[in-house]
Amino acid sequence: MSEVQTKSLIAQILDTWIQGEKSEKLTLANYANAAAILHQNVDDINWVGFYLYDQQMKQLVLGPFLGKPAVTVISPNSGVVGQSFTSQSTVVVPDVKAFSGHIVCDPISNAEIVVPITKADGTKLGVLDIDSPTLNRFTKQDQTDLEDYIQTLLAYVEQI
Fold this sequence. Notes:
- This protein starts with 8 loop residues before the first helix and ends in a 7-residue tail after the last helix.
- It is about 30% helix and about 25% strand.
- The chain is built from four helices and six strands.
- It has helices at about 10-20, 25-40, 80-85, 140-155, and strands at about 45-55, 60-65, 75, 90-95, 110-120, 125-130.
- By secondary structure, it is of the alpha+beta class.
- A six-stranded antiparallel β-sheet has the order 3-2-1-6-5-4, with helices on both faces.
- This is GAF domain-containing protein.
- InterPro entries: GAF-like_dom_sf (IPR029016).
């Protein structure tokens, strides 16, 4: 017997919103609404947004977000964002002050989770970055749900 995979509730909200808006082909709008949906539905966060990979610059550039102003350009391998992008794995940081090389945007941030955004063909689009003022904020379940969220978003975004 095989297990049935179901989308997380937050991924279902995203999917329903994009289809309801008929914005399936509007990449930038979909990133913006994806950030807003997370901001509205995930408790205890102070920053949520995307860093999108610019192939010409070979840098991660700030995309749609909600929170305080942020660093505009991040090099791959720099900070939590760069580490997740380069390793192509989710990085959960329970205490950002203990993370060597952490890039501070909001001094009240204490925890961070970064999820890579990569197409099935291997094209690296960027990362989802979420900060919280609470130490140890992000759980394994959060990681699973956010990775599912990104898989849902991938159907509606392209390289910018």
